[in-house]
Amino acid sequence: MESIKSFFEKFQMIMEEKIVPVASRISSQRHLAALRDGLTILIPFTVIGGIALMIANPPVDLETIQPTNFFFQFLIAWKNWATDWSALLSIPNNLTIGIISIYVVLGVSYRLAKTYQMEAFANCLTALFVFLCVAGVPQSLTDGNYINISGLGSSSMFAAIVVGLVVIEINHFLIIKNIKISMPQSVPPMVAGPFEVLLPLAINMLLFIGLDQFIIYLTGSGFVNLVFTVFSPLISATSSLPSMLFIVSLTVIFWFFGIHGDNMVSAITTPIFTGNLVANLEAYNAGKDIPNIIAGNFTFIFGLAICYLAILFHMNFVCKNKRLRSLGRLAIPSSLFNINEPLVFGVPTVLNILTFIPSLICTIFNVAVAYGATYYGLMGKTCMSVPWTLPAPLYAFLSTMDWRAMLVWLFLFIVNVLVFLPFMKSYNKQLDLEETMNKE
Q1: Where found (predicted)?
Q2: Is residue 45 part of a domain?
Q3: What is the crossing angle of helices 157-176 and 100-115, to 10°?
Q4: Is 379 in contact with 94 (CB distance < 8 Å)?
Q5: Do 240 and 325 reside in the same domain of the chain?
Q6: Angle ∠(423,47,127) on CA atoms, nearest 5
Q7: Distance (Å, whole) CA 408 – CA 304
Q8: Do 300 and 427 sit in the same domain of this protein?
Q9: CA-based end-to-end distance of the chain
Q10: What is the pTM of this model?
Q11: HSE (CB half, 13 Å, CA atoms) of 107?
Q12: Same domain, 305 and 353
């Protein structure tokens, strides 16, 4: 026991000497700090959206559950109620997480404008307008024009970040060079102010619309989908272990840079995983050997889901920082039901090297161990379609119909908690130092 404690203490010292200074430099860089602080603004929206999503998607499948006891009767009643009121229940999620990129571009541009001591409100509205020019182009229908909000969700976060930063940089450059429409001194400031914003607005609009059209000409897809267009050939792979380890690693890397990693890979992997799940279910019903190890949500439940819950555990039971503790309590309901946006934007895990390193290590380790445990018969293969909002340990059990899968999941969770321990303690210390400096 003493040797383990000594190891963690030595590792903690290495972290504080080597990694924490790098993390501090990253967090203090103007643009990265604006990104971090801009995403922090999203916390209340993600919490509200996550809770609404959890209520609207109860963890129950009416085709497999029977009202044999009070608890199952409650779940069935909840599911029926959520189905009847789905339109109303979906409003908070559709207008928070569903259009999260709008809040991202506003938050990031606002924070960066503040660091330059620019008029923050006018500049963040400029950034929002420019973002809508490439991500929310109105579509003509028979009874009017509509904006498809699917282009404003988490899949467009990276584009929102780029627009938010670049627009403010262009506006700042124009201010430094005094390039603006000047009104006579006799014109009141309230009247002259909007005209000063007009030129930066027009320049940014033309620049991004032109860039968007050029990218469409080259790739067939616009600026918002550029990252997916570039990386989709790399993601196209089979469901073998090496390809899955590559894909889950890429997912973690995407999340680190503010790109919705799951959305990035799902267009390629979902048909493969769904097909594998259907084949497994048919084999299970026929009493035959189940063919596929990786199926359904295997890589998430035995991958990033464990990492997020390990982070949540540390926020509630290890970290002493008041901000992390408060967010940890708020994030419990949504995180338990696999809705992790409050952690992604609240901690945040975006551009946070102290959560990225253990997340990458643990995700690769988790998927590899779960794959090996399944391959060698230590737990059953995924063969059941289970609601994605079911808490991850229960999901592991019900999707495989094997209690050993839950034990494998719990073992991986304990390992993840240990791996995250020095990183989260270092992050806790970094936040305390930053808060002390801000008070001074």
Answers
A1: Cell membrane
A2: no
A3: 30
A4: no
A5: yes
A6: 90
A7: 15
A8: yes
A9: 40
A10: 0.78
A11: 23
A12: yes
Shared domain for 281 and 399, answered yes or no, is yes
Q: Which one of 224, 245, 269 terminates a domain?
A: 224
Tens of each residue's pLDDT in the chain, 440 residues: 556 556 656 666 666 666 666 666 666 778 888 887 888 788 788 888 888 888 888 877 777 777 788 877 888 888 889 889 988 988 988 898 888 889 999 999 999 999 998 888 888 999 999 999 999 888 877 677 788 888 888 778 888 989 999 999 999 998 888 887 766 666 666 666 666 778 889 999 999 999 999 999 888 888 888 877 776 666 555 667 888 888 899 889 888 877 777 777 776 677 678 888 888 888 887 788 888 898 888 999 999 999 999 999 999 999 999 889 988 998 898 888 888 888 887 788 877 888 999 999 999 999 999 999 999 999 999 988 777 788 899 999 988 888 999 999 999 999 999 999 989 988 888 888 777 776 65
Query: What tokens were used for 210?
Result: 């032109």
Instruction: Return the structure tokens found at 245.
Output: 């380890």
CA distance 171 to 179: 9
Is residue 204 located within the same domain as residue 348? no
Please indicate, yes or no, if residue 64 is contained in any of the structural domains: no
Give the burial class of 404: count Cβ atoms within 10 A of its Cβ; 0-12 exposed, 13-18 middle, 19 or more buried: middle
User: How many angstroms separate the CA atoms of 226 and 220, rounded?
Assistant: 10
3-state secondary structure the chain: CHHHHHHHHHHHHHHHHHHHHHHHHHHHCHHHHHHHHHHHCCHHHHHHHHHHHHHHCCCCCCCCCCCCCHHHHHHHHHHHHHHHCHHHHHHHHHCCHHHHHHHHHHHHHHHHHHHCCCCHHHHHHHHHHHHHHHHCCCEEECCEEECCHHHHCHHHHHHHHHHHHHHHHHHHHHHHCCCCCCCCCCCCHHHHHHHHHHHHHHHHHHHHHHHHHHHHHHHCCCCCCHHHHHHHHHHCCCCCHHHHHHHHHHHHHHHHCCCCHHHHHHHHHHHHHHHHHHHHHHHHHCCCCCCCCCCCCHHHHCCHHHHHHHHHHHHHHCCCCHHHHHHHHHHHHHHHCCCCHHHHHHCCCCCCHHHHHHHHHHHHHHHHHHHHHHHCCCCCCCCCCCCCCCCHHHHHHHHHCCHHHHHHHHHHHHHHHHHHHHHHHHHHHHHHHHHHHHHC
Distance in angstroms (rounded) separating the CA atoms of residues 173 and 203: 12
Retrieve residue 243's tokens.
Answer: 């390809």
